[in-house]
Amino acid sequence: MTLLSLLDYGSVLIFALTGALVASRAQLDLVGFAFMASLTAVGGGTVRDVLLDRHPVFWVANPTYILIATSAAVLVFFTAHLVESRYNWLVWLDSFALSIAVAAGAGVALELGQPPMIVVLMGMITGCLGGLMRDVVNDELPLVLKQVQLYVSCAFAGASVAVLASFQDLPEIVVLAACAATCWGLRAGSLLFGWQLPVYKSRPPRN
Amino acid sequence: MTLLSLLDYGSVLIFALTGALVASRAQLDLVGFAFMASLTAVGGGTVRDVLLDRHPVFWVANPTYILIATSAAVLVFFTAHLVESRYNWLVWLDSFALSIAVAAGAGVALELGQPPMIVVLMGMITGCLGGLMRDVVNDELPLVLKQVQLYVSCAFAGASVAVLASFQDLPEIVVLAACAATCWGLRAGSLLFGWQLPVYKSRPPRN
Amino acid sequence: MTLLSLLDYGSVLIFALTGALVASRAQLDLVGFAFMASLTAVGGGTVRDVLLDRHPVFWVANPTYILIATSAAVLVFFTAHLVESRYNWLVWLDSFALSIAVAAGAGVALELGQPPMIVVLMGMITGCLGGLMRDVVNDELPLVLKQVQLYVSCAFAGASVAVLASFQDLPEIVVLAACAATCWGLRAGSLLFGWQLPVYKSRPPRN
């Protein structure tokens, strides 16, 4: 198994857990859990593959990904009542999935020899779009757009680190680990310490 | 005309009627009706074709599908006031469209020689995604996620029956009829008799 | 630079401004502005390219488009507080972007020798889907579906004019200018003078 497919497996598993947690908050049945889990898990990577004309799409080539997502859904269906705060679990699992998926997306684009900007964008797309679909389908304001939190910014920073590191002729695993660590560090800092970028204020203070 | 394109025509027509009914509830004009009808009608099949890299996409190859959807929109625009409960029509028409579209999606994947899991997934995607887009664009919680009703489960069961039947060397029409009948039977049972799977409860009763 | 890529640049720039204005209403940070601007700017053209199997997708082939969208986001982030009514700017910029994007979409389909109906549909898709994604992600009822206003109808009329004009062997620039002018004229008339098509009324008046 290659490093890239390992990252895809990891992000699929963890994103699936978040999708299933959303399903538990919506009180769906088991098949609804599997649906939300799979959509969240493979949504971002699917868009990446379609945009890069990379066929067959990763989970069409290897349906194991869907089995993993479904297993995660079953696990959550029977255990979600055991956790204290499902929203906390959702947000933190999402932060891990985001970081791994950004690395997976950037890694695929690097391997295809795409230019730096496309590498960054594919990292961001793979990281952010699964969660975005999860929230849009569930008729909620996406986590991506929650104000006063870093989210897309973390994906952007992580993917940019991947590009910079790739210029240094480092082994792929170092490049992608640096990418995931940057992304997760920023997201965790935002969740724990309230790190944020200045947000738009309609009337900035006078000088 | 092949059986598969006949199924595509049928699901396009009926999904278009549901899209137009949603447009009537939103009080759009005639072009808005045609837009919602077409989106609902071809949404699922389009995602199927893009995921399977099946180009040209079915309605790009043959725009008759869009003409059918538009005609359905015109019909509903001028007659929807005649029906008693538009929501009832919407839900029941949707159940027929779902069943036919699941058969169409599974049939295409079978014809392409895809493995069983992909056949099931393509059936579910073709069946569920057009209605999902209709509801998301209309800023509503998708019918797919309405709790205490079978929906994705019906698509899953129907597509699974298609896979099982395809192993028996039965004629294509029998395989796909069994698929559509299973899907529709479950959906109708859910609507009429309240059939459902156990839903997730945050605190299950103690033993 | 060809006329078609010029149109793509124009619609990307203006749609990006509208995406950034939506981000300012949601009080996002700078990266959130760039995300919403890029999604709005390239969403419609991306769907067009994927549906027509036109790879690489226009902004993957040439990431300048994303740079333009990001620059537009930065501009709006620092200047949006200077404008009187951001909603007015949003709606009017959207009308320009819509018209240019419809011309861009129809032009690409004409160049590929697609049949008239596909030309019309690609014009509508390129024009309407970026703004639709912007509004759906932002959890709002899409501008496309706002009742008592022409929107999809303008795209339809403009793209139809492009098809009719293309039969006259006119230069491409005339064909596409007629397309954009028709679309924008109708949209402006709808915004200024309340032009509309009859909308569906659940109980029409008795004769």
From TrEMBL, chains A, B, C:
Membrane topology: Multi-pass membrane protein
Keywords, ordered alphabetically: Cell membrane, Membrane, Transmembrane, Transmembrane helix
Transmembrane segments: 6-23, 30-51, 57-78, 90-110, 116-136, 148-167, 173-197
Domain Glycine transporter intervals: 6-80, 92-165
Subcellular location per the Swiss-Prot or TrEMBL entry: Cell membrane
Record-linked Pfam families: Gly_transporter
Family: Belongs to the UPF0126 family.
Identification of the protein by name: Trimeric intracellular cation channel family protein
Species name: Ruegeria spongiae
